[in-house]
Amino acid sequence: MKRVFICLFLALIMIFPMLPCRVQAAENRMLCKPGDTFYAVFALAEDGDRPDGVMARLVFDTDLFAVVPGIDLIGADGFSILNRHPAVLQFKVSRFAPPGEYSIEAAVVEAADADGKKYTNAKIAPVRIVVESAAGAAAESRKQQIEAGDYVTFGHYPQTAAGNDQTPIEWLVLDIKDNKALLLSKFGLDAKPYNAKAIPTTWETCTIRNWLNGEFMEKAFSTEEQRNILITMVDNTASQCYNEYSTDGGNDTKDKVFLLSYSEAKKYLGIDNNSNTKTRIAPTEYALKQAAYVSSDYMTADDAAAGWWWLRSPGHNHRYAACVIYDGSLHYYRVYNVFGCVRPSIWVNTDAISH
To answer: E strands, 100-166, where?
Structure first.
């Protein structure tokens, strides 16, 4: 290890004069948009041991940043600090980052001095990436352009029959409040029963809720996108249900991903007991492969065969859940029906979405 440290240290001395003079230790201020590159300086932390040589690995959001191979790198994400000289690494921005502060950590793998003595308390100070106001202004401009009724993209989900693609999810903007937007997927993204078992259930206890806030969210959204999805206090009171059913909707819940209630579907989409072309939706090819059913008797506004999609409100009793059927009107089906489309809703920071 000592020989490796010496060789790398000599290489670092040779390359260091060629580095841009704008390199800053600890903090980088930048416009964080795809294609941007920046240098980050990693140095031993003052509150830890200070050996002559340190081997470390990077810990950062790989969806947002990509490390550019350079003289300091050992393998895909490893680097060295020799004779206590900082390591300077280059990064590339993979996608737009909302304004704010991000961190790139470095975990020490091995540390020793020149004669081979091992250290266990060596630390490397994290690098902060601060997205400046100009990026915020760009995001603010986008936010002001987004209005209810627009379509935006956010996240990725399979939409082909093969299911091996990561296609951007299209969302209909239902509402804008302050700096957050209520989104509803344009298409039926998947097919799931409201509840896996044929037993009385509510939104609080149904399996589709667990799936949306677990497997679906992990599959559809990056770590950074998940941070921009807001936790919503979901109203499940009787006021959210069709008043002729008079069915208790169960306890209110806190969710990031949820289905619209009947009341919300009526408010934002005008859904009622009447046929409505505008409230019909088509499932994706992937959803069809998962068992989503369509009726060629009813076509969407885009002239596609319409499927039906779940709402979170109960039907006329807890063995049924409300839904929007093929003709675009309110109905209900048994909770274990596997042919219904999943049409998720989320509240999200407007800075994170764009047309």
So the answer is: 100-112, 127-131, 151-157
The pLDDT of residue 97? 67
Instruction: Count CB neighbours of 282 within 10 A.
Output: 22
Tokens (6 digits) for 160: 């082909």
pLDDT in tens, 88-103: 888 888 776 667 788 8
Widest pairwise Cα distance in the chain:
83
Give me Rg for the CA atoms of the chain: 26
Q: Phi and psi for 100 in degrees, rounded to 5? A: 155, -165
* pLDDT tens for each residue of 247-287: 889 999 999 999 999 999 999 999 999 999 999 999 999 99
Residues of the chain within CATH 2.60.40.10 domain(s) are 2-136
Confidence of residue 228 (pLDDT cuts 50, 70, 90): very high
Residues 6+ positions from 261 with CB-CB distance below 8 Å: 235, 236, 240, 241, 249, 311, 312, 313, 322
Closest CA to 338 of 218, 245, 208: 208
The CATH-assigned architecture of domain 2-136 is Sandwich (2.60)
What gap in Å lies between CA 274 and CA 277, rounded to an integer? 10
Q: If you average pLDDT over residues 200-205, what whole number do you get?
A: 96
Buried b (16+ CB within 10 A) or exposed e, 87-126: bbbbbebbebbbbeebebebebeebbeeeeeebeebbbbb
For 58-74, what is the mean pLDDT? 82
Residue 129: Cβ within 10 Å count: 24
* Average model confidence (pLDDT) across the chain: 85
Residues 6+ apart with CB under 8 A from 186: 151, 170, 171, 172, 281
Task: Give the pLDDT mean for 212-223.
Answer: 96
Residues 248, 268: contact at Cβ < 8 Å? no
Would you say how long the chain is, in residues? 355
Looking at this protein, which amino acid is placed at residue 225? E
**Phi and psi angles of residue 196, each rounded to the nearest 5 degrees, phi first:** -70, -25
Please say whether the beta carbons of 307 and 283 come within 8 A.
Answer: yes
